């Protein structure tokens, strides 16, 4: 796993040319479900207005941008790691694995991979090693990372909505699996099932009771 310094504005400006994949993750903090990542290669000839960190956008705006990204991007792919993998590897390494899967699944090989945050795994595409950089707060600085943030966020939120339909007593549509009081109350009353991350301290503590 490589750790890179924060890049300068001049460095960031050089990323506007070439085939660049932006990568971001959603779902490191929740107690349930996959950690979801996305890799996106945007088309410079089909710009998308309003891209930003998904957390700074309304749900309605994220949904609209999700559709536009899917339509206009040169390539995008969603990667994930399961609760079992999270329990076996820990959340950091499972997230890195999910990012690698997202990049490996792209239909086109990027020249460069830009990752939100301060850590980046080693990326390959069809057996070829790729150059990568991590960028702190990159989801608000680099359009392709913003797009990846949106794809990952909308994908995971939809999965939480589906889980809510299957297990309405837990309230997943509201808290999205994050450790809120309402979520803890639901777990205490109804228990945990196979989509829970059993290595996470709050879940582990409840199971040990």
From TrEMBL:
Segments forming a coiled coil: none
Molecular-function annotations in GO: RNA-DNA hybrid ribonuclease activity
Binding site for a divalent metal cation: 24-25, 116
Superkingdom of origin organism: Bacteria
Cellular location(s): Cytoplasm
Cofactor note: Manganese or magnesium. Binds 1 divalent metal ion per monomer in the absence of substrate. May bind a second metal ion after substrate binding.
EC number per UniProt: 3.1.26.4
Domain (RNase H type-2): residue spans on this chain: 18-209
Cofactor(s) this protein requires: Mn(2+); Mg(2+)
Catalytic function, reaction form: Endonucleolytic cleavage to 5'-phosphomonoester
Keyword Transferase in annotation: no
Keywords from the UniProt entry: Cytoplasm, Endonuclease, Hydrolase, Manganese, Metal-binding, Nuclease
NCBIfam families associated with the record: PRK00015.1-3, PRK00015.1-4
Family from the record: Belongs to the RNase HII family.
Main function: Endonuclease that specifically degrades the RNA of RNA-DNA hybrids.
Entry protein name: Ribonuclease HII
Organism expressing this protein natively: Shewanella mangrovisoli
């Amino acid at each position: 796993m490589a750790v890179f310094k924060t890049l300068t504005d001049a460095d960031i400006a050089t990323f506007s040319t070439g085939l660049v994949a932006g990568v971001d993750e959603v779902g490191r903090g929740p107690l349930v479900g996959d950690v979801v990542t996305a890799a996106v290669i945007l088309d410079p000839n089909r710009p998308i207005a309003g891209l930003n960190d998904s957390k700074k956008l309304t749900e309605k705006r994220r949904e609209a941008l999700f559709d536009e990204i899917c339509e206009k991007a040169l390539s995008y792919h969603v990667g994930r790691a399961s609760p079992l993998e999270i329990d076996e590897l820990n959340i950091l390494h499972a997230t890195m694995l999910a990012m690698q899967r997202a990049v490996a699944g792209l239909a086109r090989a990027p020249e460069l991979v830009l990752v939100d945050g301060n850590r980046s795994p080693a990326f390959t595409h069809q057996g070829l090693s790729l150059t990568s950089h991590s960028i702190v707060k990159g989801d608000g600085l680099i359009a392709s990372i913003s797009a990846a943030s949106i794809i990952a966020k909308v994908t995971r939120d939809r999965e939480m909505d589906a889980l809510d339909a299957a297990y309405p007593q837990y309230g997943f549509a509201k808290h999205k699996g994050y450790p809120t009081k309402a979520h803890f109350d639901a777990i205490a009353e109804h228990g945990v099932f196979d989509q829970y991350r059993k290595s996470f301290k709050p879940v582990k503590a409840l199971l040990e009771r």
